Amino acid sequence: GAGVSQSPRYKVTKRGQDVALRCDPISGHVSLYWYRQALGQGPEFLTYFNYEAQQDKSGLPNDRFSAERPEGSISTLTIQRTEQRDSAMYRCASSLGDARYNEQFFGPGTRLTVL
Amino acid sequence: DQQVKQNSPSLSVQEGRISILNCDYTNSMFDYFLWYKKYPAEGPTFLISISSIKDKNEDGRFTVFLNKSAKHLSLHIVPSQPGDSAVYFCAASGYSSNTGKLIFGQGTTLQVKP
What we know:
The complex is a heterodimer of chains A (115) and B (114). With 115 residues, chain A is an all-beta fold.
């Protein structure tokens, strides 16, 4: 079956613009995670959902970042008033549940560049 | 502060030999550890995991060792193959009870030479 998909794969935007990054998880996966990965670093947790409920948003850097998963499937990560420091790879992962032993399947990521 | 650290950015090994990738952590609340492997232009994929109640877990050529007293884990690949060349991330969870939130290290790039 299809894996986790993310769109767009690449996004270039100007500082101050809003961007919306989309994640389409594996069908039937309850949990959905967003991570941010800077060059040369590992993924950094941002937020996660079980179904449509946002369970933990402790990793969101500030209030310009928000995420939603209104129907418990596709999720959107929105960054308002983008800044150059927001440039990074944004990764989405999904899993059957949020228990630690549930494998997280990662998407290919969206490379965001803020000019 | 980096709670999960991979202090070696890169490692080069000859095909057929053992590859040893190391990872240290600082938070004693971590109780589940994972290794992910990442090829260029792809997302990380799960490789192997270990619970803190064990000190070793083996899956084919891959073995993960956990030393809780030293807060250290390592991934052994024997024998190494050119297809193992990738970036390897160590990750930990358990910081927030029973969630899948993962804390990753910086990654180690492994190159296996034919």
